[in-house]
């Protein structure tokens, strides 16, 4: 499979879905073919964000059916979301763990990867947005992607959560090597999100950097325009382009560059490589 990335944090409310949406849009605007897979059945998921919330309650085949039956074709679920394609979430995913247990599904953590493999030739990048709660959907996202981008709040809680998440990834890696000796999970980037100006932000960033975490040299600021774009079911890029919405204020335009840099991290495979390219330009 071509490069696939899961955006994940065990902490809810850190802007994970907003980051996934706008990173995918940035990649698409850089000329890449991008498929986003929304694994979150809850209200307010990426599918809702980009205007396909009605597909989460349809009686038609959905992502849960594909995960339960490998004879189903994931390509039948793909919808055009503008700058990227989307496999939408569905409320039926909420019961997927019990469904897999009832059917005694073998290698159930590998179902998404198997379903997406036939699509590998059609896309440059796969971005996966699972729920925050650790469950079989998160397992599937991590097995499919292997690389993780972590949005984090620059707070003491956020700093502690990174250590816990690293422990979780290490444990999962050891477990999955039972089935695949070459299996590895890695943190591609830690992206400070909803950043403000207090001293605690600077202190936590310094702690993460001194601990060797791949922290981006920028943080995505807390801006009301992200909420406005969400209400209008747009990415922030679409919001900036739309004649029906207000113009971005000068201090809001940095968001476009920041999401573009996250996209470049996905392209280049590391924070350092992406930042080096940005400096060279």
UniProtKB/TrEMBL annotation:
It comes from the Archaea. Residues 5-173 form the AAA domain. Pfam families: AAA_31. Gene3D superfamilies: P-loop containing nucleotide triphosphate hydrolases (3.40.50.300). InterPro entries: AAA_dom, DNA_Partitioning_ATPase, P-loop_NTPase. This is ATPase. It comes from Haloprofundus marisrubri.
């Amino acid at each position: 499979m071509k490069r696939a990335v899961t955006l994940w944090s065990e902490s809810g409310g850190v802007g994970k879905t907003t980051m996934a949406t706008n990173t995918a849009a940035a990649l698409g605007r850089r000329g890449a073919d991008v498929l986003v897979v929304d694994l979150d059945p809850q209200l307010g998921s990426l599918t809702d964000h980009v205007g396909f919330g009605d597909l989460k309650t349809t009686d038609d085949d959905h992502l849960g059916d594909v995960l339960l039956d490998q004879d189903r074709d994931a390509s039948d679920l793909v919808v055009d979301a503008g700058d990227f394609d989307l496999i939408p979430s569905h409320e039926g995913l909420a019961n997927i763990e019990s469904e897999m247990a009832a059917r005694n599904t073998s290698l159930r953590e590998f179902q998404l990867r198997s379903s997406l493999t036939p699509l590998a030739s059609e896309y440059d990048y796969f971005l996966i947005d699972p729920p925050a709660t650790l469950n079989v959907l998160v397992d599937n996202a991590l097995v499919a992607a292997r690389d993780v981008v972590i949005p984090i709040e620059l707070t003491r809680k956020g700093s502690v959560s990174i250590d816990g998440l690293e422990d979780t990834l290490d444990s999962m890696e050891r477990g999955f090597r039972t089935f695949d000796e070459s299996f590895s999970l890695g943190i591609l980037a830690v992206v400070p999100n909803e950043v403000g100006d207090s001293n605690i932000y600077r202190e936590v960033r310094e702690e993460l950097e001194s601990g060797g975490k791949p922290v981006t040299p920028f943080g995505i600021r807390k801006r009301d325009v992200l909420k406005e774009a969400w209400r209008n079911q747009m990415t922030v890029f679409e919001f900036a382009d739309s004649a029906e919405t207000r113009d971005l204020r000068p201090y809001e335009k940095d968001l476009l560059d920041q999401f573009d840099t996250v996209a470049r991290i996905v392209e280049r495979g590391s924070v350092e490589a992406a930042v080096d390219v940005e400096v060279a330009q």
